[in-house]
Design a protein that fits this description.
Shape: globular
CATH architecture: 3-Layer(aba) Sandwich
Oligomer: single chain
CATH class: Alpha Beta
Number of domains: 1
Length: 116
């Protein structure tokens, strides 16, 4: 079993994404390697992640501080209008699978992929 995990968030659902963030922090705190990726409709959450009034902001800031944020899907962030925000915040734009964030690279590197 791998001790490396990549969490792919697909849904535009803040309650679901809170669990992505909580799990990423918990995995990291237990000494394992973990990365978070925003894909599909989850990219719509990007503005909320940087809004101090959002319930996501505090947890997301902890993700950033620990270096757990891997990146954001290029195609989806462009489609859903958050690409420029992602760029302005310095988020890594992922486009290795036909302009989407692919899983194959992580599988080759021994990560277990978990989707939300």
């Amino acid at each position: 079993m791998s001790n490396k995990y990549v969490l792919f968030a697909f849904r535009n659902d803040s309650m679901c994404f809170i669990h992505v963030l909580l799990n990423a922090l918990d995995i990291a705190d237990k000494g394992m390697i973990v990365k978070v990726i925003l894909e599909s409709e989850s990219v719509k959450l990007i503005p909320d992640l940087y809004n101090d009034e959002s319930s996501l902001s505090n947890l997301y800031n902890r993700i950033l501080e620990k270096g757990l944020m891997e990146g954001v899907c290029k195609a989806c962030s462009q489609k859903f209008g958050t690409y420029e925000v992602a760029l302005s915040k310095g988020l890594k734009i992922l486009d290795d699978m036909a302009n989407h964030a692919g899983m194959a690279r992580f599988l080759k590197e021994g990560y277990q992929v978990i989707t939300f």
